[in-house]
Specification:
The complex is a heterodimer of chains A (478) and B (236). Chain A has helices at residues 2-69, 73-94, 106-126, 133-163, 174-177, 202-210, 216-228, 257-270, 325-338, 391-396, 408-412, and strands at residues 279-283, 290-295, 298-303, 309-314, 344-352, 355-364, 367-379, 385-389, 420-430, 436-446, 449-456, 462-471, 474-477. Chain A has 478 residues and is an alpha+beta fold. In chain A, 35% of the residues are buried. With 236 residues, chain B is mainly alpha-helical. Chain B has two domains: 48-105, PGBD-like superfamily/PGBD (Muramoyl-pentapeptide Carboxypeptidase, domain 1, Orthogonal Bundle); 123-235, Cell wall hydrolase SleB, domain 1 (Arc Repressor Mutant, subunit A), CATH 1.10.10.2520. A three-stranded antiparallel β-sheet of chain B has the order 1-3-2. In chain B, strand 2 (225-229) and strand 3 (232-235) form a beta hairpin. Classes of the chains: A alpha+beta (478), B mainly alpha (236). At the A-B interface, helix 2, helix 3, strand 4 and strand 12 of A face helix 3, helix 6, helix 9 and strand 2 of B.
Chain lengths: 478, 236
């Protein structure tokens, strides 16, 4: 009897175990298939991006070859436009391909430069002017590099299809990490494909050219470092405006830490703070930088050169809103006056609920200098200035000799005949790169839309159009 | 086909029942979908109007947690925060004025002639999520600084040309790779995103940032450093 029940228990146990095994097996197969499906879907996306990238770069290279020789402006503009289009698409595709780490991309840089250059050349050629010798040279330089990029990319592409390359180099496995297995060298530090030994380290270039990429990303890294070794293209376009290398507006002289504290205390006192004890809590290393100070919720940056407050922000909690936007603008003007800023005019506001961002620009003899701007943040509970950013002002402000060659009437005659002018004035705006343009600014309406149209006050060309849209939080200039 | 009387009666009954339930269903859904603003909503309210209210609060940057159509604690708190920062009586009740203000702020942008041209804020939510995932716990300007880095990449030639392309670039942000970016952002992150998008940059032109206590990555340590804000070092 005992024996019998034992067998019974064992039978039930094995049936249960068998069932459990069956269920988990089924579940495993289901999950495996699901994963496979998703992996395929993802892989297809990557493949699509790579195919598109190769096609875009190839199209760009071809259009560059054609644009070089085109002599009729209408055709030249067409090819330049094609370059612009395919370069933009290429940058986009490039960012969709898997990577194993983050870094600066020189492929992006070259392609972005070309996009920017072709854009400005399109504008130039369309206004019936020719590219000058220097521009022709830059364009050829760019083309030579693109030929190389295109070749390498197509090579990689063929390799990908022939050898089923992985997307990224596999990380070292456990044995390799323990130093037992052989570590496959990655190609991150690659060099020129064709062993151009003029630039860079010839040994590294040699080494890299011998290597066949073991993954798509590895191949792209090789390409990237081969581009890095080319001398920089002499074109300085609209690129990299995020960092100001040579600020124009900082006063002369250098200050030390104690002076920075004085300046901060003085600045805060003007805003109504009493007996502050700001402390230097860090340094900032940039041409506009210097000392970072903190005092309670306040953060300030004071430039080493010239000793001016470039950035101030009080991060305090903001109480119930009691002001409206026009009142905030008044408070902004009042704060500017307290801080000793004269001839500033508010050009835009953005309502962010508990505070409002106000932009003010310098106005000189009725000429609005849009490049020399400061940004103010007004707390909407008591109208206090809680933010001040003068980086743009100190980066671009300088003495300008502004003499218009054409008259307001002449400029107005250049406008679209449907455009109804509401406001007109002279203005300095930023153009490609850190260049500026001295313009007539016309605010007006046409086709039910509000625009700002800029006519160059020296050459008379229409240089910029901005569309003005009313958003719930203020006017948006697009 | 052949029907007998019994069958036909049953069919009739089914048809009647069906139409009654259909009518009831319709009546219920229409009351359920009363438009936001028809009546004032207060803690304890439920239904589609509350859901609409919650969606609009999120759209303007006030987080309510789950959009569940229940006017609970977190919705009340979000309404209060919204009222406070818009100069309305902060009572946590979504009355006529509160709803009108909310509708105004979530409205579309228009041309000078009044033609609607969309919301013009598509990237704010994504940027806010990235800031929240990467920088929650950092001081406010530290969060603006993260947003500013992304905006600076937009201006840089070494990066892709749209906010989405920059954020989703493989291995660019750890919070994207591990899925934290899909968490809803808090009010602070939304504000920081808006401020960064409008051009505020406490970093002075940084492209990268890292937490020195948490990374040994050689590339990032090799970048020229600009300054430290909160726990992050910002670099060119």
């Amino acid at each position: 009897m005992k024996e019998h029940s034992k067998i019974k228990i064992l039978t039930w146990l094995s049936i249960t175990l068998f069932l459990a095994f069956g269920i988990s097996l089924g579940w495993g197969i289901y999950e495996y298939n699901l994963l496979k499906e998703q992996k395929t879907a993802l892989d297809n996306q990557y493949k699509r991006a790579l195919n598109d990238l190769v096609a875009d770069i190839n199209e760009m290279e071809t259009s560059m070859a054609k644009a070089k020789v085109a002599n009729d402006p209408s055709l030249k503009v067409l090819y330049l436009g094609e370059i612009w289009k395919s370069s933009d698409a290429a940058v986009n595709r490039f960012s969709q391909i898997p990577a194993d780490e983050m870094g600066i991309s020189y492929v992006d840089k070259l392609v972005n430069q070309i996009a920017e250059f072709s854009k400005s050349m399109t504008q130039k050629v369309a206004s019936a002017r020719n590219m000058n010798d220097n521009e022709v040279q830059i364009f050829d330089d760019m083309h030579q590099r693109v030929i190389e990029v295109n070749r390498s990319l197509q090579n990689l592409f063929n390799l990908y299809y022939a050898e089923n390359l992985e997307w990224v180099d596999a990380p070292p496995n456990l044995l390799q990490r323990l130093g037992i297995g052989k570590l496959i060298q990655t190609v991150a530090q690659g060099g020129e494909k064709d062993g151009d030994s003029k630039q860079g380290d010839p040994q590294a270039a040699q080494q890299a050219s011998e290597q066949t990429p073991s993954s798509v990303r590895g191949g792209l890294k090789q390409l990237d470092s081969s581009l890095q070794k080319f001398p920089p293209i002499s074109y300085k376009g609209d690129l990299d405006k995020h960092f100001v290398e040579k600020p124009l507006g900082l006063p002369e002289g250098e200050i030390d830490e104690n002076k920075a504290i004085d300046i901060a205390r003085n600045f805060l006192a003007k805003l109504g703070y009493k007996d502050t004890q700001p402390q230097v809590t860090g340094l900032s290393d940039r041409p506009l930088g210097g000392f970072n100070l903190t005092y309670q919720d306040v953060y300030l940056e004071i430039s080493k050169k010239g000793g001016v407050v470039t950035y101030y922000r009080n991060q305090r909690d903001i109480d119930e809103r009691r002001l409206d936007v026009p009142r905030a603008v008044e408070k902004g003007y009042a704060a500017l006056e307290k801080l000793g800023w004269k001839n500033m005019v508010v050009t835009s506001t953005e309502d962010l609920d508990s505070y409002v961002l106000v932009e003010a620009v310098a106005q000189d003899n009725g000429i609005r200098i849009y490049t020399d701007k400061v940004r103010l943040t007004i707390a909407m509970d008591n109208g206090e200035l809680i933010g001040f950013d003068a980086n743009a002002y100190y980066a671009f402000h300088h003495d300008r000799r502004l003499n218009s060659k054409i008259t307001m009437t002449e400029a107005r005659n250049k406008l679209d005949k449907n455009f109804q002018v509401i406001e007109e004035r002279l203005a300095v705006i930023s153009k490609i790169g850190n260049e500026e343009a001295f313009c007539y600014e016309f605010r007006g309406t046409a086709y039910g839309e509000e625009y700002l149209i800029y006519i160059d006050a020296i050459e008379g060309a229409e240089v910029k159009i901005s569309r003005v849209v009313n958003t719930p939080r203020g006017k948006l200039i697009q | 086909m052949k029907f007998d009387l019994k069958d036909r009666n049953r069919n009739k009954l089914i048809v009647i029942l069906l139409s009654i339930s259909l009518f009831l269903g319709l009546a219920l859904t229409t009351t359920g979908q009363a438009a936001l603003g028809d009546r004032s909503l207060s803690p304890g309210s439920k239904g589609a109007e509350v859901k609409e209210l919650q969606k609009k609060l999120i759209q303007v940057g006030y987080q309510v947690g789950k959009v569940d159509g229940v006017y609970g604690k977190s919705t009340t708190a979000a309404v209060k925060r919204f009222q406070k920062s818009r100069g309305l009586k902060a009572d946590g009740i979504a009355g006529e004025k509160t709803i009108a203000e909310l509708k105004k702020l979530t409205g579309e942008s228009t041309t000078s002639a009044g033609t609607k041209v969309g919301f013009k804020n598509s990237d704010v939510q994504l940027l806010a999520r990235c800031i929240h995932a990467e920088g929650r716990g950092e001081p406010y300007i530290g969060q603006v600084a993260i947003g500013a880095c992304i905006m600076n990449r937009l201006k840089s030639s070494e990066f892709p040309n749209s906010i989405a392309a920059i954020i989703y670039q493989p291995k660019a942000f750890s919070a994207v790779d591990d899925g934290q970016i899909n968490m809803p952002p808090d009010d602070t992150a939304v504000k920081a995103a808006k401020e960064a998008m409008s051009g505020s940059d406490p970093t002075g032109g940084a492209l990268f940032y890292f937490n020195p206590a948490k990374t040994k990555n050689k590339f990032i340590w090799s970048r020229p450093q600009i300054k430290k804000i909160g726990n992050h070092i910002f670099t060119r």
